[in-house]
Write a structure and sequence with these properties.
Number of strands: 17
Strand content: 15-25%
CATH topology of the largest domain: Rossmann fold
Largest sheet: 8 strands, mixed
Number of helices: 15
Shape: globular
CATH architecture of the largest domain: 3-Layer(aba) Sandwich
Radius of gyration: 21 Å
Strand order of the largest sheet: 7-16-17-15-14-8-9-10
Distance between the termini: 24 Å
CATH class of the largest domain: Alpha Beta
Structural class: alpha/beta
CATH superfamily of the largest domain: Vaccinia Virus protein VP39
């Protein structure tokens, strides 16, 4: 069966032509990105709302931030546009509850870089998408990939809930042994290192964990005290040197600052290393480097060509969902490629697994 692009209209065109008022759920960077697209498409926002605990008389971009129940009491029918990411169960359930009562759209806007995954973009890149679909190693990967594509076009969250995988399934897919040399690129505060240690029952050869943000790195040092672990305060890149970087101490420490076209005034130089400069051996590499995945892949080219197991984030840039799998396949055609999506709205936590 070929890849099915089921959606015939992208979410932005749907929002542009609707006569219903549109309320944005959330504030901050996500809302700003959505407002920018609204301006490009001449879409009007009727207002903003937040979870009750975040309202307290706040305003955002000149709008008073409401509670959802206040809007429901005064507006008969409206559309909700989600402007933040949700991964933990209680918030995920809250969003599903809202979607059961209202038309809810979770637009796909890139974490890093430009361009939108519109219907037109999908059709223009259909050949690349079809090639990835054909390369995938199991039916669940094909379903997940197809659902992610249709979600990115439409913003309809049912596509995500229908293809969610848990951490145990992903670990099972990786078939980790007790002598792995694990490289964690974008180790954050050590959460994925801890997942690896649990997944192997604490049996492995060595762990190399790289994190560029200094505050995150301090958390990593505090949280990971296991034996045979090397912690590296550096960014993963395609060459050794330095990069301009503006860390914020969070999960997403200014990924765009890896790019020379978007340097921040408050940025500073940090070390940048190829993966094969961090270690001379790797059997499993995880990459969650906030938009620098292509460069990190180039920096790990030697290990990938040798058939190293991979776990790579596919959601930071618009093009990642098909360009990264094709790049990995070109480097190591014998790797079996799988795609899984962990519980998250929007399509963040979509992963490429290579074994």
């Amino acid at each position: 069966m070929p890849l099915a692009i089921k959606e015939k209209e992208d979410c932005w065109e749907f929002l542009r032509r609707t006569d219903l008022p549109i309320f944005i759920y959330g504030m901050g960077d996500g809302a700003d990105k959505i407002l920018k697209v609204f301006e490009e498409y001449s879409i009007a926002a009727a207002g903003f709302f937040a979870s009750d605990e975040f309202v307290r008389g706040h305003s955002f971009r000149g709008h008073l931030v409401h509670r959802l129940r206040d809007i429901e009491e005064t507006v008969k029918e409206f559309i909700v546009v989600l402007a933040f990411g949700a991964g933990y169960d209680s918030l995920y359930s809250r969003i599903e509850d809202i979607a059961a009562r209202h038309t809810l759209i979770a637009p796909d806007v890139p974490v890093v870089g430009g361009g939108l995954f519109t219907l037109g973009y999908a059709l223009e890149n259909r050949a690349g998408l079809e090639r990835v679909y054909e390369l995938l190693a199991d039916d669940m990967s094909k379903k997940t990939f197809e659902n992610i594509i249709n979600f990115k076009i439409s913003g309809k969250i049912h596509y995500l809930t229908e293809c969610t995988a848990d951490e145990d399934e992903i670990m099972s897919l990786l078939q980790l042994s007790d002598d792995e040399y694990y490289v964690d690129l974008g180790a954050y505060n050590g959460d994925t290192v801890a997942d690896f240690i649990r997944g192997t029952g604490g049996k492995y050869s060595h762990i190399y964990a790289a994190e560029p943000d200094k505050r995150n790195f301090c958390k990593l040092e505090r949280n990971i005290t296991a034996e045979n672990v090397t912690l590296i305060n550096a960014a993963a890149w395609d060459k050794d040197g330095t990069l301009e970087f503006s860390g914020k101490g969070g999960r997403n420490p200014s990924a765009a600052d890896f790019s020379t076209d978007r340097l921040k005034a408050a940025s500073k130089e940090i070390p940048a290393l190829r993966c094969d400069s961090m270690t001379d051996r790797a059997t499993y590499i995880k990459m969650d480097v906030e938009g620098a995945e292509r460069e990190a892949v180039e920096g790990a080219k030697k290990f990938i060509e040798q058939g190293c197991k991979l776990n790579i984030s596919l959601y930071h840039r618009t093009e990642d969902i098909f360009e990264l799998p094709l790049l990995i396949h070109d480097l190591c055609p014998q790797l079996k490629l799988y795609i899984r999506h962990k519980k998250y709205i929007p399509a963040w936590e979509t992963l490429l697994i290579g074994i």
